[in-house]
């Protein structure tokens, strides 16, 4: 288990921490924008950078002041950091002279065919596999990965994401995976930590972070574009009645009547219907509007809808089958339904 | 309506600035090459070879080679650690130290000789102490080595520094995170990757040392190095008698360029 307590580091233009973090034998994704302190956190834990304050412990042993080579911390860099003058086999063998161990990890990461090639002749995906095999061959007690998939093409990244999740889970050691890509973070991490300005804003399961963001920053960074002020009309037994303009919404999160709260609705959780559709939905969470514009984003459509009864524009994402069934063009009339469970309240 | 002029016609009449640039540069290239060819071709090869075997020439060549190899070795022993330190250090101290390293390169060699004389001359503390222990720091091979090391060692430091800097630090971190010590990391990762650049620096330092004249003549007129022998032959017997040694030095210069290009890391390019 990795325990980080009150970790701080001060640079000329950037203050990191204090950061507290506990990582069991699990995968923790560190998600944040560029310059938020993700790599600093990794560098401090790895021992590349000296800490100014706080403690780092791994399985009960304090790592502060311990040289990098004695920390038993596996590091995988964004570019792999393979030794270019050695073959893939020599790179893996650099950490493990045992031939069986080289074969085992080469086989595990499906790089047996490229073992006698040098890094510059390998593809990006192959280089990352070799880098991971080399790190795992050293039998680390902690695995730190700094955006190893960032420079790879999308199809390879998707494939490696699936493979790595299974691999990391089987390691039974703390794994910290740094990324600025929300999809990678949620796909790989058992938990996700959102970092901003050198501090951790929220730690939780990927779904909790996406659906129950703690702050506006976390909400925006995880794709929750729909943030609106609402007035709490009534607090009922299981639900809270809210009002945005003339639209009444039920939410499952409790809030005191009369207060103003910020609504947070993830675009993927909003349902879009034809003007007469959505009859089976609760009236209070349904509204009519006009499509302002839409654009293709990856394999889904992003649609912006101006609501009739409130001065807000709702952003939704729609998958192709649903999109094809709807007359979705700029100016088209639609009805939207927001399930009560999809409404999260920020205070 | 069909166009009357094709784009190719227009392009072919366009003023070719690149050719003009080359023609202007060619004047300078001729200025480099013609004197060298004149030197090599001015004497029949048989005469040059005959003069090369003269005792004064052989002695000067031996002294120069011995002193230059020693200077290059000393520059490497002390220059490579300094180069590594500079490559892995940040901040103002690095800027100051780099400036100090570059100083002998921009200092006129004759001034370098004067500077050295104030420290290791016969009437100085260090010079006197060395002489008392049987080591002459002037008018000796030691004096030549001191002069050559002063002017040539910056080539090792600056070139090796660039070579070390070209080795990504993440490779060193990766090595250390795999449980290897700093020394093992340096030996197995940093040094092999920086080696062509380091060798280029040592080669340049050797070439600079063997051609050193200004500082050497201040510290050690005797024993004569090849540049000093050229000067003596020219002033006493005329230009023709200086040719054989000059041809050797031209040969060493050409060999240096070949070595640098074979290494693929010519820092002068």
Q: Notable features of this structure?
A:
heterodimer, A: 347 residues, alpha+beta, Rossmann fold, OB fold (Dihydrolipoamide Acetyltransferase, E2P), 2 domains, 5-stranded antiparallel beta sheet, globular, B: 269 residues, mainly alpha, MetI-like fold, 13 helices, 80% helix, flat
Strand-residue proportion of chain A: 25-35%
For the record, give the distance between the C-alpha atoms at the N and C termini of chain B, rounded to a whole number.
Answer: 53 Å
CATH homologous superfamily name of the largest domain in chain A? P-loop containing nucleotide triphosphate hydrolases
Count every helix of chain B, treating DSSP H or I runs of 4 or more residues as helices. Answer: 13
Cα Rg of chain A: 24 Å
Integer average pLDDT of chain B: 90
- Helix/strand/pairing category of chain B: mainly alpha
* Uncertain runs of chain B: none
For the largest sheet of chain A, list the strands in their spatial order.
6-7-8-3-9-10
CATH architecture level-2 label of chain B: Orthogonal Bundle
Provide the succession of SSEs of chain B: HHHHHHHHHHHHH
- Domains counted in the coordinates of chain A: how many? 2
CATH fold-level label of the largest domain in chain A: Rossmann fold
Q: Ranges of chain A with pLDDT <50 over ≥5 residues?
A: none
**Total individual domains of chain B:** 1
**Helix proportion range of chain A:** 10-25%
Structural class of chain A: alpha+beta
Beta-strand fraction estimate of chain B: under 5%
Instruction: Please state the oligomeric state of the protein chains shown.
Output: heterodimer
């Amino acid at each position: 288990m990795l325990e980080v307590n009150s970790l701080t580091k001060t640079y000329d233009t950037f203050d990191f921490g204090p950061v507290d973090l506990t990582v069991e034998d699990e995968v923790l994704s560190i998600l944040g924008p560029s310059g938020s302190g993700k790599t600093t956190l990794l560098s401090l834990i790895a021992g590349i950078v000296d800490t100014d304050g706080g403690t780092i412990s791994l399985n009960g042993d304090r790592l502060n002041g311990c040289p990098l080579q004695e920390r038993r911390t596996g590091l995988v860099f964004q570019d792999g950091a393979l030794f270019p003058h050695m073959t893939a086999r020599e790179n893996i063998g650099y950490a493990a002279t045992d031939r069986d161990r080289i074969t085992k990890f080469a086989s595990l990461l499906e790089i047996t065919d490229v073992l006698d090639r040098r890094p510059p002749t390998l593809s990006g995906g192959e280089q990352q596999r070799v880098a991971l095999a080399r790190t795992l061959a050293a039998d680390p007690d902690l695995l730190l990965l700094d955006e190893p998939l960032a420079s790879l093409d999308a199809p390879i990244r998707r494939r490696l994401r699936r493979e790595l999740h299974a691999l990391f889970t089987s390691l039974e050691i703390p794994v910290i995976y740094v990324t600025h890509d929300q999809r990678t973070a949620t796909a790989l991490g058992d938990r996700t930590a959102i970092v901003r300005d050198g501090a951790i804003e929220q730690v939780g399961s990927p779904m909790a972070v996406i659906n129950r963001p703690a702050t506006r920053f976390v909400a925006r960074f995880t794709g929750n574009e729909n943030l609106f002020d609402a007035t709490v009309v009534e607090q009922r037994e299981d639900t809270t009645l809210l009002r945005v303009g003339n639209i009444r919404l039920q939410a499952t999160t409790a809030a005191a009547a009369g207060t103003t709260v910020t609504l947070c609705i993830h675009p993927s959780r909003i349902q879009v219907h034809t003007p007469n559709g959505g009859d089976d939905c609760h009236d209070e969470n349904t509204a009519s509007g006009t499509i302002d514009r839409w654009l293709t984003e990856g394999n889904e459509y992003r649609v912006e809808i101006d609501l009739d009864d409130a001065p807000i524009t709702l952003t939704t994402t729609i998958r192709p089958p649903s999109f094809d069934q709807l007359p979705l063009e700029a100016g088209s009339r639609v009805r939207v339904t927001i399930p009560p469970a999809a409404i999260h309240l920020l205070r | 309506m069909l166009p009357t002029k094709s784009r190719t016609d227009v392009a072919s009449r366009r003023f070719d600035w690149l050719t003009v640039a080359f023609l202007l540069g060619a004047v300078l290239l001729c200025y480099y090459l013609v004197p060298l060819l004149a030197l090599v071709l001015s004497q029949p090869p048989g005469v040059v070879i005959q003069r090369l075997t003269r005792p004064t020439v052989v002695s000067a060549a031996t002294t120069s080679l011995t002193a230059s190899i020693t200077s290059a070795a000393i520059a490497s022993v002390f220059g490579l650690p300094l180069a590594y330190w500079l490559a892995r250090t940040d901040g103002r101290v690095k800027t100051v130290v780099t400036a100090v390293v570059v100083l002998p390169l921009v200092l006129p060699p004759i001034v370098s000789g004067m500077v050295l004389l104030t420290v290791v001359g016969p009437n100085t503390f260090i010079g006197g102490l060395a002489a008392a222990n049987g080591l002459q720091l002037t008018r000796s091979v030691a004096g030549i080595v001191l002069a050559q090391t002063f002017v040539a060692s910056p080539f090792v430091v600056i070139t090796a520094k660039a070579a070390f800097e070209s080795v990504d630090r993440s490779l060193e971190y990766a090595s250390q995170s795999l449980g290897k010590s700093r020394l093992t990391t340096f030996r197995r990762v940093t040094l092999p990757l920086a080696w062509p650049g380091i060798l280029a620096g040592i080669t340049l330092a050797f070439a600079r040392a063997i051609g050193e004249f200004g500082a050497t003549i201040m510290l050690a007129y005797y024993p004569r190095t090849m540049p000093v022998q050229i000067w003596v032959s020219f002033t006493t017997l005329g230009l023709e008698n200086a040719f054989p040694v000059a041809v050797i030095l031209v040969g060493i210069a050409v060999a240096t360029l070949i070595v640098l290009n074979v290494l693929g890391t010519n820092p002068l390019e």
